[in-house]
Amino acid sequence: MAVTQAIPITRHPYADGSYKKMLIDGKWVDAASGKKFETRNPATGELLATVAEGDAEDINRAVAAARRAFEGPWSKVKPFERQALLLKLADLVEKNFEELSQLDTLDMGAPISRTRGNKLRVLGMLRYYAGQATALHGETIENSLPGDIFSYTLKEPVGVVGAIIPWNGPLGASVWKIGPAIATGCTVILKPAEEAPLTSLRLAELAMEAGIPPGVVNVVTGYGETAGAALASHPGVDKVAFTGSHVTGQSIVRASAGNLKRVSLELGGKSPDIVFADADLDAAVPGAAMAVFANSGQICSAGTRLFVEHQVYDEFVGRVAEFGKKLQVGNGLDPNTQIGPLVSEQQMERVSGYLDIGRKEGAKALAGGARLTNVQDNMRIAQEEIFGPVISAISFKDSDELIQRANATTFGLGSGVWTRDVSKAHRVAKALRAGSVWVNCYQAMDPAVPFGGYKMSGYGRESGKQHLEEYLNVKAVWIKTG
Ligand code: NAI
Ligand code: MG
Prior knowledge:
By secondary structure, this protein is an alpha/beta fold. The chain has helices at about 55-70, 75, 80-95, 95-110, 110-115, 120-135, 170-185, 200-210, 225-235, 245-255, 280-295, 315-325, 345-360, 400-405, 420-430, 465-470, and strands spanning about 1-5, 20, 20-25, 25-30, 35-40, 45-50, 140, 150-155, 160-165, 185-190, 215-220, 240-245, 260-265, 270-275, 305-310, 330, 365, 370-375, 390-395, 415-420, 440, 450, 460, 470-480.
């Protein structure tokens, strides 16, 4: 892979090395403990900002504020007004999009071409949720009881929501949690990842500017084991919406047991990407490569297990390796960069560690160790989520056996199929145990189309009408009329 020159960092107002407070009840506050932590640019190691280090005490304050807002003024705000607030926020995000893209790039390293490229989806999400705010409704349901008794349902906001997000796409992840909360009339405490908290803080500032009332959107910055764990176990939180690793997801479920709060989980994956010999290989080569190399592999639904039909295996993996070698690696702020750094030293060590494990288990690295071939289904590199630019290439002959092998993972988030045969595409799409199947494309996402996991990739759906349901309770009302 060619390496571009690092370019000088523009001093962003949120990344000029200064101290950033967190947002509780519409006010910018220090952590109760007075503690702070650093966030750095992974491309250069440069200090971007120090941030308030919230913990259990700050979560208590934020939950109290969110509860007051939920039961007080926010409960009187009509759907039409919630819609207007979301549309206003969307306009502000649009106006400041370049700044928000740069902030994501600075804080977690993704290429600027990628963070800018999120514009359509981020704005689309805010405006989609705005639309849904006035489209929520229960049903009148005819019952079979004797006499005259009328029944209907109400959809009510679930209440105070704790939202915990990872670092791999801070702006998109923040909007994905805050948007449905505002649309449904919930209040939210957002806990960004400690590796990349800055965009969430700036977004919260825009939410205040849009006129979203105090306590409706709170952001508590801090570490997972302290602030995150306190939010997940808090008896005053009605629901946790979590995105991150399955190990943390499991601890969130355990922590939720105290008050049996609702939980939705968008966890990791080890998604199969299947290339049949009859596929348009010119499209499948970049498609399969970018299914993993995009965001340096730090995408939950990355197509990291590449199954290639044996007749074209050698040609195909060779071409993917060539494609990988040509990608421009560099500082995310350089518009030519296609692959940015991994988010942290720790993540770099994790990914390199997996490459060593792969070699020890007998896989062979092509293209600078960035891609492994001769991978067997049961190797750890073919089973565990690596979250780096690592593809495991696996050859297959028998199509029936292929399905079984593709599904032989504890995860079930994304999956890809490349073929020109329409019936084969339908058959395989039906057989794959995953929340999304992409045929002749990879990673397509839209605010109106549900996204989520099977098996250990989690439960609940984000985007689409199902997403709003995650933030709503259903109440049945019976009225005896005669
Ligand atoms: P993580 O799941 O630990 O972190 C995600 C979020 O959860 C962060 O905000 C973190 O502060 C919070 N958190 C951590 N421990 C917590 C706890 N006990 N209670 C409540 N919240 C907690 O993921 P991490 O450590 O950043 O990355 C490790 C691996 O996880 C990655 O290499 C990747 O394989 C996977 N991952 C998957 C993601 C996805 O989108 N599905 C996103 C991030 C990581
Ligand atoms: Mg950072």
